[in-house]
Amino acid sequence: MSVPLLMADLVHLAATKSPESDRTWYLLVLAPRPCPAKPAEDAEPSTEAGDLMPLNDVWLLYTAPVEHGDFLRLLFEFGSRGALRWDLHDCYTVTEKSLGVGGCGTVYLGQSRMRLPAPKDTAKVDIPAVPQVAVKKLNKSGGVTEEINIRSEIEFLAVARGHPCISALFGVFCFHEVGSAEGRRGPSIRWTIVMPLYSEGDLFDYLAANGAMKETAAATLMLCLLSALTHLHRLGVVHRDVKAENILLANNKAVLSDVGIAAFLKDEEAMQRRVGSPGYAPPEVVTDLPYDEKVDVFGAGAVLYFALSNTLPFPGKTLKKVLELTARCKVKYDPALFGDFSGSIIQLLKALLQKDPTKRPSAKKSFKALWTMASQKPEIQRSSVARITLQAVDDFDSLAATRLESMKSNGHKPGWTAQMLAFIARPRFTGVTPKKFSWGSES
Ligand SMILES: Nc1ncnc2c1ncn2[C@@H]1O[C@H](COP(=O)(O)OP(=O)(O)O)[C@@H](O)[C@H]1O
Ligand SMILES: [Mg+2]
């Protein structure tokens, strides 16, 4: 049995305190939101948020008596698998410091309010207790459209979770904003996604501040990116917006983020839609041909080109010019910019930027080629980041296989399964008994 968590409203209350200890029985209510229908393209923006739709199933979960800290960790686990929480301001303080602005929202620095005692039974970082986080507040654009967009972003974050170079999901929250009901028929809600903080910002800003990268740094960056893409592609997910603004940096590691316009490879309609970002989108997208996961490989090539030269492969003053240059795909390698790099990294770059997607290597093949070449360098050999990218490519074969299996049985929806129950808080949490009652985005 599996309780669907993706976009399931989660509320909880403390039921009874255990007379013998300071543990409490809690009651959790999980109500999966029905997926709202997509409004017609010419329809007026809807004012009705999805929270007015009737609910189908509601799940009630009772816990065994647990300590408060363990209960908070359980809520966190549910949130990181896509359950929708309403207690953002109990968990985090959202500061006014903006970390970045994208097409879909603004990301702010947040501080955790959870004061958790250290867990007794794990040596791992206690994620719910990390002091600082990034909080992405989605723009307000109309209830149903926002809900459809965030549902998709959350779904892909939850599906792809666990890879060290893919942005993790800490939780999805919504709240009623003061004054936001003005002029609307029903209640209006504000959606937020909480993620780990990547303290060095995005690659675009890094290159603007520091100029082009040295070959070793660019190789480490690409090991991270290609390892992340290998994982996504194995899960049948195409990112569709690989670009410098969506690559975040922290502790010499690069992390792929913003799965806001990702799509499943098997979604034939999505694999024809012209989305992504001009300058990074490949010829097959700008010429409106059907495409596949190789669009991300091309995006990775544009990122490598940018990292090595601080210019994009198709520099045009207007959108029209960029698209024309992309469609032709005659990439220039100015010796003044690329002359100092090794032949092998230039060879990889040219392979990633191949016009014909069938000739472009897969993310995994590119990763392996880069690894073989880069691991000759002592700095890469010593780098723990480089090692984890390789380990992820090797280990995640089995993780992806398990994830694919559970996605098949669960219709792609991240759920809460018996396997996960074992993962949460083994001996102390065995008493849970579920009871059944166009650029589409230029972000
Ligand atoms: N976890 C994070 N840590 C630090 N900065 C972030 C984080 N997530 C996003 N940002 C910054 O915010 C910008 C916009 O975030 P993003 O998720 O790409 O939003 P959008 O979907 O609107 O493009 C990014 O380009 C980056 O500069
Ligand atoms: Mg973005």
UniProtKB/TrEMBL annotation:
SMART domains: S_TKc (SM00220). It comes from the Eukaryota. GO terms for molecular function: ATP binding; protein serine/threonine kinase activity. InterPro entries: Kinase-like_dom_sf, Prot_kinase_dom, Ser/Thr_kinase_AS. One of its GO terms (biological process) is mitotic DNA damage checkpoint signaling. The gene is PEPKR2. This is PEPKR2 protein. It holds the Pfam family Pkinase. GO terms for cellular component: cytoplasm; nucleus. The lineage of its organism: Eukaryota, Sar, Alveolata, Dinophyceae, Suessiales. It comes from Symbiodinium pilosum (Dinoflagellate). Residues 93-372 form the Protein kinase domain.
